[in-house]
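The instructor's notes for this session suggest beginning with a concrete chain rather than abstract definitions. Hand out the sequence below and ask the class to guess, before any prediction is shown, which regions might be ordered.
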Amino acid sequence: MESSTKLEIPKKQFYDKKNYEPLLLECLNRIPFFINKSGGGFSAPKSESNGQCDAIGNNGCYSVDFKLLLSQEGAQNVNETSLTKVTLCKGVTMSAPSKASMRREPSLPFPNIWGFLVSHSFSLNKNNEIILADKADRNMKDTIKSLNKMVCTKKNLLFFHPSRLVIQDSHDNPIEVLRNRAKEALLIVSKARRKLSPGYETYYALLINNEMVLLSEDFTHTGCIELTSLDTWHNLHIKL
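After discussion, reveal the predicted structure:
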């Protein structure tokens, strides 16, 4: 049987930080790598009014802030979407917005930074800002602006990409497939972070099949956890 790989459109629950922040916090507290980093686990700040990180380590000297890898345009238009198929690259498709097109309106900007990064060419300019290699494509300028703002953040960051990669009937290790896809899409983010925020760590939280997988900035596997084992996942009422 031939293997198949698809990237699902992000669930609407993930556009609200009140949903994804507790999920990521529970993941960090279930993965040994991060438990050791934090001195025994993380807790949420009592307030974020002064820019506190989303996960505060018990040791008081290590914290992590969460960033959602979805474009601003996509978040604004999530309620305008139904499903259609879009090819990201060879062998990979995902569902994308179509309700607006059914009303004969212009296509909505791509809501998913992963797919956007995979399907476009990027580079860093002399200021180490992420720029589009193809100057003709300007429809995602707000996405690039938001991404550049995120990579400059002087905190340890965990980027969460909420589109689930579904791999079926593959003889390859799913996590290795995910690592390769992530490196293809997010290498420019890691590179910019090293240039603009040296001394601060970068991680990625990605969904594959029924697991949350965490990778370091060089795409080393730091841990994974089954989604259905997380209390916060059940609270989201998302079917796999």
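Then share the key points. The two ends are 22 Å apart (CA to CA). Residues 78-83, 98-111 have pLDDT under 50 and may be disordered.
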